[in-house]
# Entry
Amino acid sequence: MKRWLGKAEVVLGNHSDRLNAINIFPVADGDTGTNLYLTVRAASSAFDETEAHDVGAVLSKAGQAAMEQARGNSGTLFAVFLCAAAEPLAGKTRLSAPLLATALNRAQIRAWSALSEPVAGTMLSVLEAAAHAAQRVDAEQDGDDSNHALGLSLDAVVEAAYQAVLRTEDELVQLQEAHVVDAGGVGMLLVLDCLRSAVLGEELQDELLDDLHGYKLQDPHIHEHMPADEGVEVMCTISLSPLNAAILRQRLDEMGDSVIMSQVGGSQPSDDDDEESTTEASYRWRVHVHVPDPAPAVELIRSLGEPTDIAVSQLAVPRHDDSDQPRHDY
# Structure
């Protein structure tokens, strides 16, 4: 698992420019590669502080770090993927085909549900295809937990992800018109191929990228010719009760789009340890939304709790440079 995310950090760093170049959905802001790289880097860095031999615990720690520092739609969905995949792996000391199938299925369900308006033809579709492939192999192998079955499953997962990436171009009008595949989908393909490479000790399958439209180095940066989006991206972490979380999601849906809300960890301990409390349990949430004006969204968030790490970024400004991008704290 450590090799996996370390390898993914390097690969996404190397591919961030091309992922940025074809990033036109949901907004043509050319930052998917950068956002994925920074989020995976946060996950990979979390391993510096743990030597756990529990696969789920290791990935959960990495997922929490990724969620806290997630950037953009793609980074947030990757963090959701990692946190969800860690859950069925808790207490396990090795990965197996049955566990991989369960983990990917949990991840794709959580990722689809994190978005208020999930869209096919994105990294969601790629993750879903990968999960279905893992389940199919597990069924064919009758739950075999051998390394051989795991290898078959990983091969099928990457192939299914590749085919799903190819289909993204026809699933979204914006991609079809620009003649490119989805940037987030390619990012997820790279992440899954890194998993295969790390587990099986094999080289990355660079040939997977040869036929992806818009992905050659000589191809133009498609997003630079698309209309600029004048809105902003607002992100934060906040503790909310399930009711207030539902209220926040509904109101953010009314204010903007690309709403993503996902829990960060379990419920928060009650402030009242001495008496039985009737207060509804609260949970920490990672919140992401695109809005025309940040002020109403920030005001709404603050009216429901005390957010931390509120960051506001202009969607119209390509953010190619690491963490030095203009982000406004509220």
Q: What stands out?
A: The chain has eleven helices and five strands. Confidence is low (pLDDT under 50) at residues 272-278, 319-330. Residues 147-171 form the longest helix (25 residues). The two ends are 36 Å apart (CA to CA).
